[in-house]
Amino acid sequence: GMLAANPLLAANPLLAANPLLAQAMMSNPLVAAGIVQPGGGSQQQEPIQHESDMIDPDVQELCDYFHIEERHARRLSDLMKKRQSTFVEDIERLYDVLERANSPAGLLVVKMREMEEGTFVGKVKADGALAVISKRYKLDDQAESKLADILARYDEAKRKEYLVEIERHLEVSNRPSAMAMMLLRKLGEGQSLGRPGPAAPGSYADKQRKTASSG
Questions:
Q1: Rg (CA), the chain
Q2: How far, in Å, CA of 104 to CA of 121, rounded?
Q3: What single DSSP character describes residue 95?
Q4: In the structure, how many helices (H) and strands (E) does the chain have?
Q5: What distance lies between CA 159 and its chain's CA centroid?
Q6: 105, 62 in Cβ contact below 8 A?
Q7: 8 Å CB contact between 212 and 180
Q8: 170 within 8 A of 133, measured Cβ to Cβ
């Protein structure tokens, strides 16, 4: 009677001879369809990943967010292991640039090459007041990004205070970018920048004074 009721059993006399196996098959459609071998033979052991093979969770998150495939994620993870000191800035930088990219994966490959060549900078963008100062004194990229990096460590009140001090020093210098680089150590240590010197010939303050007196 059981055979007639179930075509699967009719097709497989072995099952008819083994009611327990037949029952297992009835309750598991995958086994019935022959996809899974009874006895869990297809449950392959996941290879245990070594620490060094693991993709960093922050890198994985970035790649998931931009739908970037695993081979790129793995390569980025390997590169980032060597960049622990700038890890956060680098990742933030990647979010910024990839967000604006038409092809995030393509751009990521370019950025990874920059990392390998040592030209990738995960920098803090000069914003608001610093951008205005940078433009006014024609600071070069390096001076601007170093100032942005250091000022980003402080809260807004301290930043504003420093920007006023920085500007006082830049306006009397005829080489503002070099002056900005000289101020970095004090800024980094949280010290006051001290009194600016007299206005150098050719400095912003010097030009302003000449314009005022001739006007």
A1: 33
A2: 18
A3: H
A4: 14, 0
A5: 24
A6: no
A7: no
A8: yes
83-105 confidence digits (pLDDT tens): 998 898 899 889 878 987 899 99
Which tokens go with 95? Answer: 């979010």
Distance CA 184, CA 167 (A): 13
Residues in contact with 57: Cβ distance below 8 Å, sequence separation at least 6, in sequence order: none
How far apart CA 154 and CA 63 sit, in angstroms, is: 30
Phi, psi for residue 58 in degrees, rounded to 5: -70, -35
Mean pLDDT of all residues belonging to the chain:
82
Closest CA to 187 of 142, 148, 131: 148
Is there a contact between 213 and 179 (Cβ–Cβ < 8 Å)? Answer: no
Q: How far is CA 103 from CA 24, 55, 58, 64, in A?
A: 50, 22, 20, 14
Query: Looking at residue 25, what is its pLDDT?
Result: 58
Asked whether the CA dihedral 82, 85, 88, 92 is positive or negative, the reply is negative
The answer for residues whose C-beta is within 8 angstroms of residue 110's C-beta and 6 or more apart is none
For 202, phi then psi, to 5°, come to: 85, -5
Dihedral, CA atoms, 186, 190, 194, 198, nearest 10 degrees?
50
Report the alpha-carbon distance of residue 90 to residue 26 in Å, rounded: 55
- Report the candidate in 178, 117, 171, 175 with the shortest Cα–Cα distance to residue 147: 178
Q: How far apart are CA 179 and CA 200, in angstroms?
A: 12
Collect the ranges in the chain with pLDDT lower than 70. Answer: 1-52, 123-125, 215
